[in-house]
Amino acid sequence: MTAEKIKVIFIVGDKEIKVEASVGLSVLEVAHDNDIDLEGACEGSLACATCHVVLEEKIYNILEAPEEAEEDMLDLAFGLTHTSRLGCQIILTKELDGMRIKLPSATRNINL
């Protein structure tokens, strides 16, 4: 049985990159699978903020609230917004089909 696919749109600068992604993957994994420049220096272990992304309000509100560890890492992110999340912590579901994910113009890699 093949994994269910949804459409995800990454916004990098003024360019939109539309990809198909498997439900169950993280946004970080989808970015890496599609050669999208979302760093993820800690490889998704929730030890950095280099996979910081900005979501649309309606998508942000669908997701469960970030855990305290994610919020702590987000405090280190460049260009933090009220709809910021870490890409390694967003697991794709059918409800996220068509989501738009904006990559910040820069990242801040702080080794803790």
Task: Name the features.
112 residues; five-stranded mixed β-sheet; globular
Description of the structure:
Helix content is 18%, strand content 25%. The protein contains three helices and five strands; from the N terminus they run ββαβααββ. The N and C termini lie far apart (41 Å). The chain is α+β, with helices and mostly antiparallel strands and 112 residues long. The model has no long low-confidence stretch (mean pLDDT 92). It has a five-stranded mixed beta sheet.
Cα(first) to Cα(last) distance is: 41 Å
Order of strands across the biggest sheet? 2-1-5-3-4
β-strand amount:
25-35%
Uncertain residue segments = none
Average of per-residue pLDDT values:
92
- Class based on secondary structure composition and strand pairing: alpha+beta
Reported for the largest beta sheet, the result is: 5 strands, mixed
Q: What is the count of helical runs?
A: 3
H-E string: EEHEHHEE
Instruction: Count the E strands.
Output: 5
Helix content: 10-25%
Rg over CA atoms = 13 Å
Overall shape: it is globular
Condensed summary:
With 112 residues, the chain is α+β, with helices and mostly antiparallel strands. The chain contains three helices and five strands; from the N terminus they run E-E-H-E-H-H-E-E.
Layout of helices and strands:
Blueprint: E1 5-12, E2 15-22, H1 27-33, E3 52-55, H2 57-62, H3 68-74, E4 84-86, E5 99-103
Parallel strand pairs: 1-5
Antiparallel strand pairs: 1-2, 3-4, 3-5
